[in-house]
Write a structure and sequence with these properties.
Number of helices of chain B: 4
Number of domains of chain B: 1
CATH superfamily of chain B: Winged helix-like DNA-binding domain superfamily/Winged helix DNA-binding domain
Strand order of the largest sheet of chain A: 3-4-9-6-8-7
Number of domains of chain A: 4
Strand content of chain A: 15-25%
Shape of chain A: elongated
Distance between the termini of chain A: 54 Å
Number of strands of chain A: 22
Largest sheet of chain A: 6 strands, mixed, barrel
Radius of gyration of chain A: 38 Å
Strand order of the largest sheet of chain B: 2-5-4
Structural class of chain B: alpha+beta
CATH architecture of chain B: Orthogonal Bundle
Largest sheet of chain B: 3 strands, antiparallel
CATH class of chain B: Mainly Alpha
Shape of chain B: globular
Oligomer: heterodimer
Number of strands of chain B: 5
Order of helices and strands of chain B: EHEHEHEEH
Radius of gyration of chain B: 16 Å
Largest interface: A-B, 22 and 20 residues
Structural class of chain A: alpha+beta
Chain lengths: ~900, ~120
């Protein structure tokens, strides 16, 4: 601003010269010098004002006024430390809670996936629509994968994925490491790189190809001490030697929907899937855990879905026995990885935003109270010529400054809170698998920008309240009344409206929390159908050359279970393919003997588990009819199964199911008939919430072929289950010291970690609800107390005229309680409309659950009464003499 | 009370001072006091211009680059700032003048419809 400087230089001199010239003119006209000078000055006008105006022409006015306003606002805030502290603290709680939730939203939903052009990546699943079985995310069969891959024109490539875990043995204690068998193209599809070595080639991804493995960075560091020579070395997986060819980048995360954010359970080993020609023509066995694909640059998601639908229809015609009702579901990878927690997070985010609105209402009310005591100051400033615009700006500056202080404190709260959460061990194990561990959450730039934005927004919002007061400020009255509030208490004031809104918002939040609490309690009280107390669970997967034959595995289970039963404190033991409540479930189609033959697509489906004899007894599931499976059911005896009650009631409603026979697949298929020898009670399988479905259980002792095995072991103990863990380990290691033993936990731990997501949501929403109750009660208390103080004189007169103390109390109570109950009523109505959005999070109740609504209403009403009673009691004790003098 | 007080004086409409300054400078560059005198003299002392208010207006016009400023010597041999109309200012003056004529004409027609 060169011109600006030049113009303002010597400017005073210009003015002096002007006046001097005018004075000279006047003297020439015959005025005496003294008078001539005064006349010149008079004619010139207000010198200071002229200077200021010229200065303003050249100044960046808004900036300078802003600095001025900020300075003034800071002074005003410093002068009332109590008000400032309360407002900043309230804001900090609201903004802090929002910041914390946003940091989760940012990490989970907004952060792009760690692959180049991640929005081109999709997962492919079978979409199964059968009469008895519907699943949008059905595991694809290798045959379907092969046909999708060769027939489509919309994807660069498709890679198959198969979950696989390995027993990693060697010099250290054996460990079970999660991994995947994948197509060679997977890494190039993801466009990720190795830290060391390379990923596998297409010619290694063939049946009988070399045993090569790519390792995760974490495993490389923890197990192999970041050995730079690891590439070319070999490691033992399931007793087989694999050559390490590469180590993935430190930041690489496998796109695994189940554990994407839980690094401790992340996949660490990748081997070629090496699908054989037999696999590639198998459309019936759904053994892949999805397929990953990248869209061609010119293809859209919609086009991809349309083309895959066409391919699926063709496949149904070609393979009617396996592909009846089987479509293709193209899911964007992002949706796949965060979809399950996304809605939950948005709902939490919505609630925390309501809390921030309450905070705004509260601060607005504080500002209103202050503005009314500042009435005189404002009137004075308007009278002295300040424009209303200027005063509005001043007030907004104050509000924004408050909001920014609140925001800073809020960000501090949020980062402390997140750090404190990291310190709580319980929370680390409690971290829902769909969310990143707390350690990974931080207050980064996007979070800071968000906090700044909501702080400013909040500032503008609550800053509107005092401006309303200015707009209707009557200068004369303001000056005369000396800053006293002139509202008559009977009129509905903005303060009242705000407090009603605040209580209504509070009701919504509390209702939300109550609904979640009800759901959670119902979930906790749901009978599982088995007894989780005193039950130890662990995972031991016998996988090496010595277990390749089914009978070898069967005999291992029999021996190991017998050994375990000898451990002191152990009552019984059993093993199963998938432990209940771990979100795993296999299903099989079957035919019932004597019923009309059905085509493959119409076969009824049942949950299927392979179990060891003694499994039901150990779990505590009663055998209702017939007998349990036994080790004497062998390959030499006729094949038997046990079914659950739901199965018996569905397929043999008025008959005795014992002795009935079913067959896996079609009735005319090659599979043997299986005879029902027992019926066990229903129990919760997939998770706590899902109703038990018909289920079939086969004994491991009759497994004739294939790779099926039992992964999870259950041990019924006397006393603390974990106390027997060491003995159980030794029992297993006495048979095979190379078997890793993992997931050692009690069944009660399994149960609580299966509801951890609900618990997490409940915990957060519970915190918000607590905050909401505090805010609502403080808000109402503030308004009632203030209104009472304003009416001290009136109360004094009433009492002097003979009003009784309880009349006075009723007067005050009536005002507060009216506001409170209008707020509760409004809140209930709003909550009825809004809680429908959270139906997906509820279990066992509807979104309009009267108990939850009632509890919320009662809680808030109680709080309202307390908040009003305090000022009412104070008013009751008013001394009329003092009150009448009250100014 | 001075004798000039008997004449009724009219306060300037917002923005018209700018127009008057530009018009004055059309006759050639001059200094501040001379502009004030010229406006007052030419309007037969009818317009009430606080001479001080001239300066913010001058600075506004400089900022808009309608006039420029240079050092010079006044008639009584004092160093003073001389204000000169720029080409841009000349165009602005034409524009404003025609606008003013239209406005004045319109108002006159309303006030004296008979004429």
């Amino acid at each position: 601003m060169g011109r600006r400087k030049r113009m303002l230089e010597n400017f005073d001199q210009d003015l002096r010269d002007h006046i001097e010239t005018e004075t000279q003119d006047n003297i020439e006209r015959g005025m005496p010098p003294e008078e001539a000078r005064y006349a010149a000055l008079r004619k010139f006008g207000n010198v200071t004002r002229v200077k200021e105006e010229v200065w303003e022409v050249w100044s960046v006015i808004w900036l300078e006024q802003l600095v001025q306003d900020v300075r003034y606002a800071a002074r005003v805030l410093r002068k009332s430390p109590g008000f400032t502290a309360v407002a900043v603290l309230t804001l900090a709680l609201g903004i802090g809670a929002n910041t914390a939730i946003f940091s989760v939203v940012q990490a989970v939903i907004l952060e792009p996936l760690p692959y180049p052009q991640p929005n081109r990546l999709v997962m492919l699943w079978e979409r199964v629509r059968l009469r008895n079985y519907q699943n949008d995310l059905n595991d694809p069969s290798p045959g379907n994968f092969a046909d999708w891959r060769t027939q489509n024109l919309v994807f660069e490539d498709i890679a198959a994925i198969q979950d696989k875990s390995f027993n990693l043995t060697g010099n250290a204690e054996p460990v079970r490491v999660e991994g995947e068998a994948v197509s060679a193209s997977l890494f190039s599809l993801l466009r990720v790189h190795t830290a060391l070595g390379r990923t596998f080639n297409v010619d290694e991804d063939v049946p009988g190809g070399p045993h090569v493995v790519v390792m995760g960075y974490g495993l490389w560091v923890s197990r192999f001490g970041a050995d730079p020579q690891i590439v070319h070395k070999s490691i033992l997986l399931d007793g087989v030697s694999y050559q390490v060819i590469g180590v993935m980048d430190r930041n690489f995360r496998f796109p695994d929907p189940a554990n994407f954010h839980a690094s401790d359970q992340a996949d660490q080993l990748w081997v070629p899937i090496a699908l054989s020609p037999t696999d590639l023509s198998n459309h019936g066995s759904h053994s892949l855990q999805g397929a990953l694909a990248r869209l061609n640059p010119e293809a859209t998601l919609g086009q991809a879905q349309v083309q895959m639908d066409a391919i699926a229809r063709r496949l149904t015609l070609e393979h009617p026995s396996t592909n009846e009702g089987v479509g293709v579901n193209v899911v964007p990878l992002r949706e796949q990885l965060v979809g399950n927690v996304e809605s939950e997070l948005w709902i939490l985010f919505g609630f925390v935003a309501l809390v921030l609105l309450m905070v705004c209402a509260n601060v607005a009310n504080l500002l209103l109270v202050r503005a009314s005591t500042r009435g005189r100051e404002l009137a004075m400033r308007i009278a002295l010529g300040a424009s209303r615009m200027r005063i509005l700006r001043q007030l907004f500056t104050e509000s924004l400054l408050l909001a920014l202080f609140g925001g800073c404190a809020g960000v501090l709260f949020a980062s402390w809170g997140l750090r404190a959460l990291q310190g709580v061990r319980a929370l680390q194990t409690l971290g829902p698998s769909g969310l990143p561990s707390v350690g990974k959450l931080g207050v980064g730039t996007p979070v800071l920008v968000f906090s700044l934005a909501i702080s400013l927004l909040a500032g503008l919002l609550f800053g509107m309240a005092p401006t309303w007061q200015v707009m209707r400020c009557n200068v004369q009255r303001g000056l005369k009344e000396g800053g006293r509030e002139s509202d008559s208490p009977s009129r509905l004031s903005l303060r009242d409206v705000l407090v009603v809104a605040e209580i209504a918002l509070g009701v919504i939040v509390v209702v939300g929390a109550a609904l979640l609490l009800r759901s959670f309690l119902l979930l906790q009280q749901t009978p599982l159908g088995f007894d989780p107390r005193g039950l130890l669970t662990l995972r031991v997967i016998p996988r090496s050359t010595q277990y390749s034959q089914p009978w070898q595995r069967s005999s291992f289970y029999r021996q190991a279970l017998a050994k375990i039963q000898e451990v002191p404190g152990v009552k019984s033991a059993g093993a199963v393919s998938f432990l209940p409540l771990t979100f795993f479930q296999a299903s099989k189609g079957f035919s019932v003997e004597g019923q009309p033959a059905l085509t493959s697509g119409q076969l009824p489906m049942a949950v299927y588990d392979l179990v060891s004899p003694g499994y039901f007894e150990t779990l505590g599931v009663p055998v209702l009819e017939g007998r349990d499976l036994s080790w004497s059911d062998t390959l030499q005896t006729f094949p038997v199964i046990v079914i659950n009650e739901a199965m018996a009631q569905t397929y043999w409603p008025n008959e005795d199911p014992i002795g009935k026979r079913i067959k896996e697949g079609r009735a005319d298929g090659a599979m043997p008939w299986l005879t029902v020898v027992g019926v066990v009670g229903n129990f919760r399988h997939f998770d706590v919430a899902s109703q038990p479905r018909p289920a079939i259980f086969s004994p491991i002792s009759q497994l004739a072929e294939g790779t099926a095995l039992l992964r999870d072991w259950v041990v019924r103990t006397i006393g603390n289950p974990l106390a027997t863990a060491a003995g159980v380990r030794q029992a297993i290691w006495s048979l095979d010291k190379d078997l890793p033993i993992s997931r050692v936990q009690t069944m009660e731990e399994v149960r609580s970690s299966s509801v951890v997501e609900q618990q997490f949501t409940l915990l957060l929403l519970g915190l918000f609800a607590g905050l909401a109750v505090v805010l609502a009660s403080v808000g109402l208390y503030g308004v009632t107390a203030y209104a009472t103080a304003m009416r001290t004189r009136e109360i004094g007169i009433r009492m002097a005229l003979g009003a009784q103390r309880h009349d006075v109390m009723r007067l005050v109570l009536f005002h507060g309680a009216t506001l409170g109950f209008v707020g509760v009523g409004t809140g209930i109505v709003a909550a009825l409309l809004l809680t429908r959005l959270m139906t997906a999070l509820l279990y066992g109740i509807r979104a309009s659950d009267p108990l939850a609504f009632g509890a919320a209403a009662i809680l808030l009403s109680a709080v309202i009464l307390v908040a009003c009673c305090i000022p009412a009691r104070r008013a009751m004790r008013t001394d009329p003499v003092v009150a009448l003098r009250y100014e | 009370m001075s004798t000039k007080g008997q004449k009724e004086r009219i306060e300037l409409l917002q923005g018209t001072l700018d127009l008057l300054i530009l018009r004055t400078l059309l006759l050639g560059p001059t200094h501040g006091h001379a502009i004030a005198k010229a406006i007052q003299f030419k309007s037969d002392d009818v317009l009430l211009v606080e001479q001080g208010s001239l300066y913010p207006a001058l600075h506004r016009l400089i900022k808009r680059r309608w006039i420029s400023v240079e050092e010079g010597t006044s008639e009584n041999n004092r160093r003073a700032k001389f204000y000169r109309l720029t080409a841009k200012g000349r165009r602005q003056l034409e524009l404003e003048t025609s606008k003013w004529d239209k406005l004045a004409g319109a108002i006159t027609r309303i006030l004296r419809p008979a004429e």
